[in-house]
Design goal:
This protein is an alpha/beta fold and 334 residues long. It has helices spanning 5-12, 16-23, 31-44, 50-57, 71-74, 78-93, 106-118, 135-143, 167-180, 196-211, 228-241, 252-263, 295-310, and strands at 62-67, 97-102, 124-127, 147-150, 161-164, 186-190, 221-223, 246-249, 271-273, 290-292, 319-321, 325-327.
Length: 334
Amino acid sequence: MPVTIKDVAKLAGVSPSTVSRVIANHPKISQATKTKVYEAMKKLNYHPNVIARSLANRKTYTLGLILPNADEDLFENPFFIQVMRGISSYAQKKGYYIMYSYCKTEEQELKTIHHFINSKWVDGIILTTTRFKDKCVADLIKINHPFVVIGRPEENHKKVLWVDNDNVSAMYHVVHTLIMKGFKKIGFIGGEHEFTVIRDRLEGYKKALEDHGLPYYPHLVKEGNPTEKQSYHAACDILKKDKPDAIVCTDDIVAFGVLNAIDEQVDKRIAVVGFNNTPMSAYKTPSLSTVDINAETLGRYASKLLIHQLESQETESSNYIVGTKYIERESTLL
């Protein structure tokens, strides 16, 4: 015989309606009662019927995740894997599932978002990037559909739920650290300028140079497609024109391409710093200095903010700033 909600209620010593409220994470149920019910569910190996919950509450218990990558590129950048792990861990704990889609362009993202919403497949949307004048953010605000952004939205979107690092401060600290170690001519290679994270890291780079009285050289700055191959070409272009003391990068994948370009030089004494602390950064030759942005934590907080909104729970804030940590390795120990 299959285990029913009545069996769980009997073992936990509560009513079947209380079990239903615990499954729905009702805010008025005490933590002690929730613990008793969860323990009974575990002992009986009881799993709530998601379809029945959906029909009863007109909810899908599914979150739509938009990934701004082509399918062949998605798993080359561990950042998105780490973010997805954080999103999934919190969502699973709360009884939600993830439906994801990868999109090559902003227009594809918009189309996918509307498809998710019009098909009633998801309760809320998670955007994993934000752009300058972001159409997806503007559209979701307009139709008033629950969503959260991993990335800092524009200042006028004050009601948007979002999580991010302080990317200006994080890059500022990197450049400041390099300058204190004696590096004076520092280049910058990053992703596309339309993305807020790239703008913020470039701002931190410029501000650090300015505060230390160092000149900003436009020919030492490259932005574009943040793949290892394209970043290699960007670094080669810089090295043909000039030789910086160091190059800061907006992503470890970008830094890998830069290291490949430097490896072809006669004089390899150019420091390199990446971002995201991807697993491979510690095993490169030389090992890569980088910034740990706690990507999994970003994903977990994004999931938490959105689910709290969907369940009408109060939150301390509409946004979270997740801390970063600079990790020094061989690529800057010159």
